[in-house]
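Backbone-to-sequence.
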């Protein structure tokens, strides 16, 4: 138990790793979480909120005891629906990837205004979804520096 406590003192946040490119049920067909009985994974918005809400409660408990708290930093905007970026905007401190923000200037602006961080990984994205030439990393840096 003591070793685990010492380990948690080093943890800053939680990432969520998934394959965003897998199609999911549309938002209009969401089922209440307690009634979810499908073999398929729930939609991104459902499990992202579940992680966020549980981290919120855990963080309150840890904060009351003087322990460090954890940030929610999900994968969002690497592939798949733009809705993932909207969900992450509402729930996350920062996101991992976010290359699809280049296609949604309004969300780009909201992320900038609220200072929601992006971990854009050109090498990782190049292997999976985006060539170096099309990676928005330099564009995002240019926009922020204007």
């Amino acid at each position: 138990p003591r070793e685990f406590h010492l380990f948690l003192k080093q943890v800053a946040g939680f990432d969520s790793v998934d394959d965003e490119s897998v199609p999911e049920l549309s938002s209009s067909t969401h089922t209440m979480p307690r009634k979810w009985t499908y073999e398929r994974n729930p939609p991104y918005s459902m499990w992202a909120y579940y992680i966020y809400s549980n981290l919120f409660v855990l963080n309150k408990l840890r904060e009351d005891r003087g322990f460090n708290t954890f940030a929610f930093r999900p994968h969002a905007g690497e592939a798949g629906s733009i809705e993932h970026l909207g969900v992450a905007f509402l729930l996350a401190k920062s996101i991992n990837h976010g290359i699809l923000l280049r296609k949604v200037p309004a969300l780009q602006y909201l992320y900038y205004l609220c200072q929601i961080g992006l971990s854009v990984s050109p090498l990782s994205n190049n292997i999976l979804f985006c060539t170096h030439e099309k990676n928005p990393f330099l564009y995002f840096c240019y926009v922020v520096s204007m």
